[in-house]
Write a structure and sequence with these properties.
By secondary structure, this protein is of the alpha/beta class. Among the domains are: about 140 residues, Rossmann fold; about 120 residues, Rna Polymerase Sigma Factor, Chain: A. It is built from 17 helices and eleven strands. β10 and β11 form a beta hairpin. α5 packs parallel to α6, α6 runs parallel beside α11 and α14 packs antiparallel against α15. The longest helix is centred in the last third of the chain and has 23 residues. It is globular and about 55 Å long. It starts with a strand and ends with a helix. The structure holds nicotinamide-adenine-dinucleotide (NAD) and magnesium ion (MG). Magnesium ion binds next to α7.
């Protein structure tokens, strides 16, 4: 029996994780859940999975949840401290890190410091503080299993091979809903159009990141730290069918890829059950029905966010944390109709250009850079509106 804490249980990844738990009650038990603003869903999940502890963002929400659960309420905590307490709960064996954004950093670090294995969906944590997170993983001797489909594919393609023989990682990208749109067409993109991803059903922020291709940029940074390879050995191929989830090229010319239908349950289940595989009720991959798999170079003129992520890696230190923070603010502003689609990379570029990268020597340094990036992005957006 594996006891789980699920951070961000009310989101897209959280709900898929609980579907897997519900299908395999002999293997998994939920000891802690955390949610953001979807209290009704968190209430249902609490009644269904009976966690020992639940955490929400504010004290007010904690009270509301407690009242609505009445006699069935477990211990209910609030704030980042509450989430960190869930992540380090004495009975948890594994923490599924599925909060969106840099808000996941502190609870995820708490899990690692408490000696828990982590199934990591929250890529922003590695973007903001990759070297520190990986140092803590090594020091505490825990396992960090990737949930992101590309990184799960790479993890699977590395298994059984010598790291010294790896030449290059190739991340695949669907190209998002605007893969074939012209720059002119991108100017007028609305939030509703950007939220409609052709292949994957995801949370709002990552859907916009996929449309701008910042998601792939964040994933390059994530791969850089997870697999300890420099950025010039991590490439991106556009692969609209989303069947090849990523690849590893070896020094002898062999390329090993992992394939499957685009459904996050596969990489989530692999992180939960490694090294075993769970049987999942998914339709099989029918390559004959897919017929053609295509690959292409990304266009960094139309999708400038991808280059900005590489640029942040090259600057090093706190630069990726700033890019991540500025992106979070710009995406929110886009969803609220305050900036245009093509202004998202402009906000990030302006913040990155003004940032003086500092060494990433502590989590506090990553948090300072995150706060600076957010404030700077808000200021830049004001100048756009003025
Ligand atoms: P989502 O928006 O559907 O869910 C996010 C979860 O985090 C929710 O439970 C929400 O309530 C919670 N949350 C939001 N803000 C919070 C805050 N400030 N403090 C605490 N909790 C907060 O997002 P998602 O699509 O499930 O993505 C979660 C993470 O997984 C992201 O980092 C994303 O990049 C990554 N990811 C998602 C997918 C996918 O298919 N959805 C695929 C790969 C990676
Ligand atoms: Mg991904």
């Amino acid at each position: 029996m594996k006891n789980l804490c699920i951070l961000g249980s009310t989101g897209s990844i959280g709900v898929s994780t609980l579907d897997i738990v519900a299908a395999h009650p002999e293997r998994y038990r939920v000891v802690a859940l955390t949610g953001g603003n979807n209290l009704e869903r968190l209430r249902e999940q609490t009644l269904r999975f009976s966690p020992k502890v639940v955490a929400v963002v504010s004290e007010q929400d904690a009270l509301r949840l407690k009242e609505s659960l009445g006699a069935q309420a477990p211990e209910i905590l609030a704030g980042v401290e509450g989430m960190a307490a869930c992540a380090s709960h004495s009975e948890a064996d594994m923490v599924v890190s599925a909060i969106v954004g840099a808000a996941g950093l502190v609870p995820t670090m708490a899990a690692i410091e408490a000696g828990k294995d982590v199934a990591l969906a929250n890529k922003e944590t590695l973007v903001a503080a990759g070297p520190l997170v990986m140092e803590a993983v090594r020091r505490r001797g825990v396992n960090l299993f990737p949930v992101d489909s590309e990184h799960s594919a790479i993890f699977q393609s590395l298994t059984g091979h010598r790291r010294a023989d790896v030449q290059r990682l190739i991340l695949t990208a669907s190209g998002g809903p605007f893969r074939d749109s012209s720059l002119e067409e991108l100017r007028g993109v609305t939030p509703a159009q950007a939220l409609a991803h052709p292949n994957w059903d995801m949370g709002r922020k990552i859907s916009i990141d996929s449309a701008t291709m910042m998601n792939k940029g964040l994933e390059v940074i994530e791969a850089r730290w997870l697999f300890d390879l420099p950025a010039d050995r991590i490439g991106v191929h556009i692969h609209p069918q989303s069947i090849v989830h990523s690849m590893v090229e070896y020094v002898d010319g062999s390329v090993i890829a992992q394939m499957g239908i685009p459904d996050m349950k596969t990489p989530i289940a692999y992180a939960l059950s490694y090294p075993e595989r769970l049987s999942l009720p998914l339709p099989p991959l029918d390559l004959c029905a897919v017929g053609t798999l295509t690959f292409d170079q990304p266009d960094t003129e139309r999708f400038a966010c991808l280059s900005l992520a590489y640029q942040a890696l090259e600057s090093g230190g706190t630069a990726p944390a700033v890019v991540n923070a500025a992106n979070e603010v710009a995406v929110e502003a886009f969803l609220e109709g305050r900036v245009a689609f093509l202004q998202i990379p402009e906000v990030i570029r302006a913040a990155l250009d003004r940032h003086r990268s500092e060494p990433l020597d502590s989590i506090e340094a990553a948090q300072r850079a995150d706060r600076w990036g957010r404030a700077e992005a808000r200021r830049i957006i004001q100048t756009f509106i003025a």
